[in-house]
Design a protein that fits this description.
About 45% of the residues lie in helices and about 10% in strands. It is of the alpha+beta class. It is elongated, with a radius of gyration of 25 Å.
């Protein structure tokens, strides 16, 4: 992915989403604002803006980026993405081997302690780095899969089970595409991300369509509706928490409304997980007393 191209495509995609003010002018052949209209709203020349879209201007200032964000009506997440793209254009880097992400042992222990709530840690490229047994039972045991097949977005688009598991599959999957776009803006030279985008583009027309619109999404909380083959429909509330002290790791914890049918069904799943897990090893047996000794060893 070329940073200059990515910035230009993002600007074009976003101006297409902005409705021009109705002024009784001629009908437009394409939706959204024209280049010169964006330039006027941002207070720059049409030539300058055109060079930005064409990837011929490498160092837009922060004030220009702020003005473009206002002109294109970007929210906070999309504005941050715009700055990430511009930063990548201004400071190009060579592709480097991606750093292997690891979850701290203490965080693994925290996940295991959530016996009543599904929980997992998501890293770069929506890869699931760690998962407690209940989350693996509710969704899929992604960390157990081969390297390159552990991302939520790959599972959502390429595994038919995911389409039946998510009641609102299109909403969830398109949101994952927006999350992957954010990751691409922060890490434009990641070869594994480019490989993942290529694989999904080849196998999914829906992914290609959603990837091309350049929308970005960052979900911190919300509700997911799931259909589990063993217990049926569950309405899951989720919270996404950044893992402190490490970059690009997010802890997701799933809960249900107290007293709800979903809570009862999740409790049933948790009971099955507990029953299927191996029993803990018994404590070592005490050595038998030797003849002629008392319990104190005398």
């Amino acid at each position: 992915m070329n940073p200059g191209t990515e910035l230009g495509e993002f600007l074009r995609a976003r101006r297409a989403l902005v409705a021009p003010d109705g002024n009784g002018g001629p009908r437009r052949r394409v939706p959204g604002l024209r280049r010169e209209e964006v330039a006027a709203l941002a207070g720059v020349s049409a030539d300058y803006y055109t060079r930005l879209e064409q990837g011929r201007h490498k160092r837009p200032s922060e004030s220009v980026l702020d003005a473009l964000a206002r002109a294109l009506q970007l929210d906070e997440t999309a504005t941050r993405h715009l700055f990430d793209l511009a930063r990548a254009v201004a400071a190009p880097q060579r592709a480097a081997p991606p750093e292997v992400q690891r979850v701290r042992p203490s965080l693994h222990r925290l996940l295991e302690s959530f016996t009543a709530h599904p929980a997992f840690v998501r890293g770069r490229r929506t890869e699931v780095l760690a998962m407690n047994p209940l989350a693996a039972f509710l969704l899929a045991d992604l960390p157990a899969r081969p390297a390159g097949e552990r991302s939520l977005i790959r599972w959502a688009f390429l595994d038919p089970e995911a389409r039946t598991r998510y009641v609102d599959w299109e909403k969830v999957a398109s949101s994952m595409v927006g999350t992957l776009r954010l990751d691409a803006g922060r890490h434009p030279h990641d070869p594994l991300l480019a490989q993942l985008v290529g694989e999904l583009s080849v196998h999914s027309e829906q992914f290609r369509t959603w990837w091309a619109d350049h929308r970005v999404v960052e979900r911190r909380d919300g509700i997911k509706r799931l259909d589990h083959p063993l217990v049926g429909r569950l309405d899951i509330c989720y919270e996404a928490l950044d893992v402190t002290g490490v970059a690009d790791q997010t802890l997701f914890v799933y809960t249900t409304e107290p007293g709800s049918e979903s809570e009862a069904r999740l409790r049933t799943l948790a009971a099955w997980v507990h029953e299927e897990s191996p029993d803990p090893a018994p404590p070592p047996a005490a050595a038998p007393d030797r003849p002629g000794t008392d319990p104190a060893g005398r």
